[in-house]
Amino acid sequence: MIREAGAVLRKISAIKNLKMINCYRLFGENAPLQGILAWYEDTTINLCSADEYFPLLFDRLVRQYALEAPKSPVICDEYTRRILTAAKGLPPQELEARLSGWQELSSPLFLPKAYSHHLLLPIVKFILEKLHGDEEDALHFEDSVRDWFGQGQLSGVSHGRMLHFPYRILQKHNDVYEVRVGNALKPGDLLCAEIAFETERILASFREDAYLFTGDMILSLAGEPPVLSVSFRDGEKEIAHYEKECERLEEVKPSARAAALSAGEAADWKAWALPWGGRLFCASDEKEEYRILSAEREGFRISRAAAFRKLAEDEPQILFGTLAFMLYEKDRLAELHLLDMSYPRSSEYFIDQVGKIYGIEEK
Predict the structure, then answer these.
(1) What DSSP state is assigned to residue 233?
(2) Alpha-helix residue ranges (DSSP H) falling in the chain
């Protein structure tokens, strides 16, 4: 498998001198799977959206098509041409308009490592509570958290006993974190959870070393309402599996700054309560889609947002990333960190904007 994956990656990285690209639906119009066939030099590559490297292939083809099509013809049908030409980043003037009033900073006031626990620890608490069982007093966490730049301690009560869970947060990639929690089920026990914020889902996979419990939680962000799927295993035996829809919240919107940086305050925002706390906000129109994950506590709010361009004219969509950010808001201070995105995404945005930091302070 590793050798096959390496061969696919080498083929994708070698794409140049395009001759033909064909985007198509497998099994007919409006089918759930999309495919891409490309012919370049003397080689072809053909992947579908169920393949791991489909987004990477699509991203590469978008960039090469933009470079090569103006100079030499690339054979495409009209459907493919519309998709490839629509895969563009935000126009510079539009991004400048959204950043009006913000000042670029050379260094952050809000260090991501010091605030990542606001989004991650609620997911970890949710996992620990499920592992401890469904009894009414199985495990209840205190609201307070002792955190120092990704290290700290959770405290909770189980059957009248106070329990403490030391933890450490490691950022593996831009959107992937590992959280290690001690004393998960008994003293000295270790729980390792990997949490990924992906385009279509939030994925939390964990393993526990004392009783060999493993599990996955997938919050699907595509479709309405968002759905949480949970699967817990004891060794190879599945001991729990269920799906739960997120609760719809009425007359709730993201913060004014987060909205203005994405779809706008006047957009038709829809809100859902996340199973572990916090909220998910979504807004969309014919061409764009926006998602904001928000957590708020004692006057501090953190929002993780992403904007996508819809490339297909039908469902399911091909989403092309145009903007991603982390917004920190406390009292009158606000700070914006522009983030990288999963493939496929705007290469211009990646080159020109990712890593930049902006600040604003109300008078």
Answers:
(1) E
(2) 2-13, 54-68, 78-86, 92-98, 112-115, 117-131, 256-261, 347-352
Q: If DSSP codes are grouped into helix, strand and coil, which group holds residue 362?
A: coil
State the Cα–Cα distance between residues 26 and 34, nearest whole angstrom.
6
DSSP state of 210: T
Assign 61 to helix, strand or coil. Answer: helix
Residue type, 23: C
Distance between CA atoms of 85 and 231, rounded to whole angstroms? Answer: 40
Helix (H, G, I), strand (E, B) or coil at 17: coil
For each successive 10 residues of the chain (363 residues), what is the average pLDDT? Answer: 75 94 80 86 91 92 93 92 90 91 94 93 94 88 86 93 95 91 94 93 94 94 91 88 94 94 93 95 92 90 95 79 95 94 89 93 69
Helix (H, G, I), strand (E, B) or coil at 73: coil
Query: pTM, whole model, 2 decimals?
Result: 0.90
Q: Which of 280, 341, 335, 336 has its CA nearest to residue 309? A: 341
Single-letter amino acid code for the residue at 126? F
| CA separation for the pair 338, 324 (Å, rounded) | 6
For residues 175 and 342, the answer to whether their CB atoms sit within 8 Å is yes
Q: What is the CA radius of gyration of the chain?
A: 22
- Please state, in angstroms and as integers, the Cα–Cα distance from residue 67 to each residue in 22, 79, 288, following that order: 17, 19, 24
Phi-psi domain of 52 (left: phi exceeds 0; alpha: psi -120 through 50; beta: other): alpha
3-state SS class at 13:
helix
In this structure, the strands spanning 103-105 and 43-48 are: unpaired
User: Which two tokens mark 122?
Assistant: 């609620």
Of all helices (H) and strands (E), which one includes residue 156?
strand 151-158
DSSP line for 310-349: E--SSSSP-EEEEEEEEEEEETTEEEEEE---PSSB-HHH
8 Å CB contact between 221 and 197 = no
Cα distance between residue 7 and residue 276, in whole Å: 40
- The token duo for 188 is 């000295």
